[in-house]
């Protein structure tokens, strides 16, 4: 009864608010990405369950995995995998009252016998996301189901539900302060050094259009952004030491991130940074287990909250196409011990297995730019655009997403299990016997000097028994 009442109130609220055709009630999305791990082509299915702030007051992993199964995104034998590996997305800003709640990634091989997978390759979507949505929506005052065809729709990221997470730009002429588009993308780069513990540098690119070019004026930019990083079973981040901090003579408190300006289409941008402050906060809604191997671990989604404040003055050079702000920071990725190699495992020469590391996702960003010079009234707000049809330069160019990072890691051979077990147990038994024998020998042995020092003759031993 209470659920029915909430639904009626929710639908009534939607019908009163605006003239849009559709409103989301609940749903899931399968966002696919094609990539190669070096030995074969794979399709990564980014499965996300979305929640609604108003209607879905309670939403648990069991409900998410059940919806994924009922909607055909996973098979029956994958339900347990979903329950054991699904990641909780930390509470973050919602767009249009819609936000991601749970995430799980599942890889599958590209089968050219499948018509659907043939279309994925023919459409050349290897550099973009394709999203297949299964949603419960309100359309024309009626509750309906929205299902995408086999081609799906373009998506900004797996965590953005296409057409249901508006950017909320306000270009009303009567508004005192209009909003302007901000374009951005995040990209990670893994170090070749470090073995099982490698630095993972991340750079967030922000592109601005229609910024002022008054050379004599000074401006202040304040930016806040949220970046999501999905973590598969193969790697983990130590939540007690999640960021790479650089300590220098001028920064005894340490530097966690850096902000700098750049320019597209020009060799250099005449920019003098007067004041530069960058902060970053790492959060995870779940405790990350750092002891488990990859085959016993689960997936996680961690969040980076970035904030920066910069004072600057600059001038556009001839040929400049856009203005960019770059935010750089890093974290240490620890690689878990992989599963033993079987005949079915994709293996490189030398007993190596591929480890796939997902790229970070820029989820949201807002920048405020104000003029600090007298007689300068420039004051604008820029909001990240997540509509893939919108190009940062006004063209129809698709958004090119960075490909996952693939590295090769040594793993044990499953066929050697009994040999390794036998040798390990034998070495442990022999070592234990040696330790016990040495400990018993040392406890029974008393040096002569120590024994003599403790023998004190009795005063009666020197007397004759007849005296």
Q: Which features characterize this protein?
A:
467 residues; alpha+beta; 10-stranded mixed sheet; 7-stranded antiparallel sheet; 21 strands; 16% helix; 41% strand
Summarize the structure.
With 467 residues, the protein is an alpha+beta fold. It has helices at 2-17, 61-70, 79-85, 115-122, 417-444, 448-453, and strands at 22-36, 41-52, 87-88, 98-109, 129-139, 142-147, 153-155, 179-190, 197-208, 219-231, 235-236, 246-248, 251-255, 257-264, 270-284, 300-315, 322-335, 352-357, 361-371, 379-384, 405-410.
Structure description:
By secondary structure, the protein is an alpha+beta fold. The protein is 16% helix and 41% strand. Strand 8 and strand 9 form a beta hairpin. The longest helix is centred in the C-terminal third of the chain and has 28 residues. It is globular and about 90 Å long. The N terminus is likely disordered.
